[in-house]
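Example with several molecule types.
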Amino acid sequence: MSFSPLTQQLIEALTCLPGVGPKSAQRMALHLLDRDRQKATRLADVLSQAMSKIGRCQKCRNFTENPVCHICAQTSRDPALLCVVETPADVIAIEQAGTYRGFYFLLLGHLSPIDGIGPDDIGIPLLDERLGQGEVKELIIATGTTVEGEATAHFISELARKHGVLASRIAHGVPMGGELEYVDSNTLSLALRGRRVID
Amino acid sequence: MNAPCAAWVMVMTSNEPDEGFLLHARPFRDSSLIGEFFLRRGGRVSILYKHLKKEGKAGAKARLLQPFTPLAVTYEDRQELKIGRMLEPAGASLFLTGTALFSGLYLNELLVRLLQREESLPELFEHYRNALLQLQDKSDEITLRRFEQQLLQELGYGLVLHVDVSGAPLLADTWYLYEADTGFIPLPQQPADPGRMRLSFLGAHLLEMQQRQYEDTAVRNAAKRLSRLALAPHLGDKPLKSRELFAAFQQETKRPS
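Resulting structure tokens for the full complex:
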């Protein structure tokens, strides 16, 4: 048995979602058609609007339907601080931590030569321009602690140096409430290397 | 950290760990990853790791899957793709920072592009490990030049650096034209044409390279040029991205602040 062409198209379209295979897509499609037409119509409407209206923030490259995102538009933030992160999810994580009051810059990836991802692909020209404007005094580099994340951090720190901006890297180490016994050896040696004097 | 066995064997049993480094990883589906490894015994292999968690203790495996970390691995052999089983650190991670990190990525890209799958190259593996150790101490071009020559040698594309095409010993003060398939052709004088100059090398520099002596800057520059020429036919049309990245990085460091 096969579905009608349009039903089949819907199922195939749903498989574009992460973690959704043909079987789950079929379940979702049937659920939407059978049980929840109203909500499904709303989903279709919002999805279509989002896809046509959401672009990138001109300042930080985060997703937004406005020219400048809501964080970049806030005047209460410290314009001297700029934090470089890889993904929009990283911005949310730092915002939830609640202690950072500066602005962000999103790379939407990291340098990875083997995958062919270079400086231009992660918005380095825009960051260069931003640092050139002279408002930023400290660049906090919060890229991942992967090898590619480190390479990206190093590349960006040179960019900051060129503009005379102080570059800092977020600390790596033992998680809160963590026992040393269970910390992996790489993290532990980074924590030892990055130790600081108790004042 | 050293291999658990003295003799290198091709036979792979899944419960006997092989030592190696991850060269590159790419995500596969939601929580899986395909790692390109360079193993001491197994050579270059692709290993699939399924159901990797990112958080907490369960994420330890994912965190371990990083380049420049000596790893002990076992895997289930299923033709081309292998399924990862045991994964443990086989020594301290190498901390490559700054320029050394870019150099390390360059070595990895070379290996990913040039190594045939499942060809056991224990000597090249040892050269690679030594190169990483040297980069950790001090990032310098000598390590890269030496590794390029070792790589060519081990892959069977080694250059004959002591005799010319006719078999006559190279003379220190003679210029030679490099031809990929034949070797070094002696020239009556240093070529004036820049196109030809790009393919020409001074005998003295070639002899130094033969001895793996790269202390002299002129020798290093000549070795860099020669390695590029010798590697080019094997790399194909696609340029090495890490080389471009490194050039872009150097551009940043050189620009006046």
